[in-house]
Amino acid sequence: MSLIKVYQPKYYKSFSCTGSQCKNNCCHDWQIEIDKITYDKYMSLDEETKNEFDKKLRIVKNQQHAACILMNSDKTCSFLDEKGLCTIQLRFGHDYLSETCRTYPRVFCLVGGSPECFLELSCEVAARLILFDKDYMNFEEKIVEKDDFVHEGFTFNFNLDGSRYSKNEKAMDIFWKLRVANIAILQTRRYTVRFRMLILCLFMQEAAELFKAGNDTNVILLADNYINRLDTGYYNDLAAEMPHGAGRETDIVLDILREMCTKRFSPMLPFILKAKEAFDMDANLWTAPEDFDEKYTRYYDMYFADKEYIFENYLVHRVLIGGFPFNYKTKTDVLSNYVDMLAKYNIVEFLFTGICRSCMKFDKRQIIDCISLFTRGYDHMRGGYLKAEE
User: Which domain holds residue 273?
Assistant: First the structure.
């Protein structure tokens, strides 16, 4: 028996799929891929069943997948029965599900050789677990049997070894120090979340300059310096002087939301319009009214002054699942990765605040629906909308 050590946030063990009872379930509205091992299983079934599968699958030619499921006219999976249950699992069992269906919303990352497990915010059950926990988000260590974790056909969603960002032999030490400092900044609750993001911006700017100059090792010293500043209250006076809405970037948020009002993001449209209406913004215009800042501050304080842990959890989750300040998918610099995260935070804060104002109450159900649909659309696009110089 071979054992391995796996790291996961404490919320991970609480996840349980609600299946067909899920309002925004994972069996509709997006492409569902079939890996080669699972496809071969389907093609080894009897002729009649194989022909049935053939009619519901489209062959794709790439190294990762063999086919994808054809959706019904209402964009639901063609393998669902009238009760919304998966006929593949009902007829053949869990082992005949594709890797995508078997693991979602779980995300498996290999970080410096260590496995990490997370949940996707695009799942409404996961969103509830991640966003609404008032305690600090932290890691737990779990010992599991390797064969139970790395099964046939298993692949890590992302693999981060640090070499794309630093040629230094201590690249992963640098990454871990950055990660610890980033989370420490975001979880310093004596400051507002918006002020924490300002500190993080300063940190990422200095780190980016060190990376650019080839002084990678000094990033560790820089991270220690920022952690020490948090411990000693270095930023207290600056926090007291900072205007409430500083760094809100309303014009950029509205530009991105305008782009999101497309067919690809059509499920998000009701939330965007609801948020705009709450701030008395014309549905067809994308400029903020003169009294926008005053209303925004008032509504935010009304619904989120004592619930900033929601945005904190959102940001810490992004740090953990995305390999921040590095990036699993592309070799962008750490400052650009910060700007992308800042844009998403600003959008989410705007939408949550507007939605609650529109409902005239703090509405968990609306927030969950919004974040799951937003994550499905935005996070599955290539890269982000912004670059560091913007």
Answer: 170-390
Higher-pLDDT residue of 260 and 204 is 204
Per-residue pLDDT averaged across 12-27, rounded? 83
Same domain, yes or no: 298 and 387: yes
Of 79, 103, 127, the position where a domain reaches its end is: 103
- Token pair recorded at residue 142: 């779990």
**To 10 degrees, what angle do helices 364-378 and 269-278 make?**
120
Instruction: Count structural domains, the chain.
Output: 2
The rounded distance, in Å, linking the Cα atoms of 145 and 389 is: 46
Residues 265 and 379 in one domain: yes
Tell me whether residue 108 is in a domain.
no
d(CA 41, CA 268): 37
Is residue 305's pLDDT more than 50? yes
Query: Cα(378)–Cα(375) distance, rounded to whole angstroms?
Result: 5
Are 238 and 370 members of one domain? yes
Instruction: Verify that 358 and 255 share a domain, yes or no.
Output: yes
Q: Indicate the pLDDT class of residue 136, thresholds 50, 70 and 90.
A: very high
- For residues 341 and 183, give the distance between their C-alpha atoms in angstroms, rounded to a whole number: 14
**Omega before residue 243 within 30° of 0, cis:** no
Angle between helices 364-378 and 334-359 (to 10 degrees): 150
Helices marked H in the chain — which ranges? Answer: 36-43, 47-56, 87-92, 99-103, 124-131, 146-149, 171-186, 193-212, 218-232, 236-241, 250-260, 269-278, 292-304, 309-321, 334-359, 364-378
* Mean pLDDT, the chain, integer: 87
Q: Is residue 210 part of a domain?
A: yes
Does 291 lie in the same domain as 192? yes
Decide if 223 is inside a domain.
yes
How large is the average pLDDT for residues 87-114?
89
Does residue 330 sit in the same domain as residue 191? yes
Residues 192, 295, 288: CA angle, nearest 5 degrees: 105
Predicted pLDDT at 1: 63
- The strand pair at 3-9 and 139-145 is best described as antiparallel
pTM over 0.85? The answer is yes
For residue 9, what are its two tokens?
A: 């946030």
pLDDT, residue 386, reads 38
pLDDT bracket for residue 296 (50, 70, 90): very high
20 domain residue, yes or no: no
